[in-house]
Amino acid sequence: MSFYLGTHVLLWLQSAPERIPGRVRSALESRTNVTVVSVVSIWEIAIKASPGRLGIVSDLGQWFPGEIARNDMRLLPIELSHAVAIETLAHLNRDPIDRLLLVQGMVEGLSIVTADRTFARYVARLTPIWVD
């Protein structure tokens, strides 16, 4: 199975893994499952980290590749099909980063691991796996 991480879940894995239920952590750590991280999440973290608000490492350009490799994650780039799919996405969420994460999950047929309840509003087109 493939698990698509919401941005906050990616951060929790690094800084507060206890916030993720044990069954979800076990699934993410299983070598039989694939963990997918979007470049959109990395972009969002970089935006929030730039003013020093997140308190994580200062050089994300070196840190992220190591974390992705160490945790055997697959990086999902932004494809043209993702960008154009936003046109047909219902306006239930106005955050442009969330909207791009949503369409990536939908286009790729991924189950998203998130504690963000606004993603549940799209449940007909996306399978959310809740961590809260």
Structure commentary:
The chain is of the alpha/beta class and about 130 residues long. The chain has a single domain, classed as 5'-nuclease (Rossmann fold, 3-Layer(aba) Sandwich). A five-stranded parallel beta sheet has the order 3-2-1-4-5. It starts with a strand and ends with a strand.
Give a quick summary of the entry.
By secondary structure, this protein is of the alpha/beta class. 44% of the residues lie in helices and 16% in strands.
Label the CATH architecture: 3-Layer(aba) Sandwich
Global outline: globular
Percent range of helical residues: 40-55%
How can the largest sheet be summarized?
5 strands, parallel
Q: Report the CATH C-level class.
A: Alpha Beta
- The name of the CATH topology is Rossmann fold
Give the class from helix and strand content and strand pairing. Answer: alpha/beta
Radius of gyration: 14 Å
The SSE order reads: EHHEHHEHHEE
Spatial gap, N to C terminus: 20 Å
Instruction: Provide mean pLDDT, rounded.
Output: 86
Observed structural traits:
132 residues; alpha/beta; Rossmann fold; 5-stranded parallel beta sheet; 5 strands
Topology of helices and strands:
Blueprint: E1 2-5, H1 7-15, H2 22-29, E2 34-38, H3 39-49, H4 60-70, E3 73-76, H5 80-85, H6 96-108, E4 111-114, E5 127-130
Parallel strand pairs: 1-2, 1-4, 2-3, 4-5
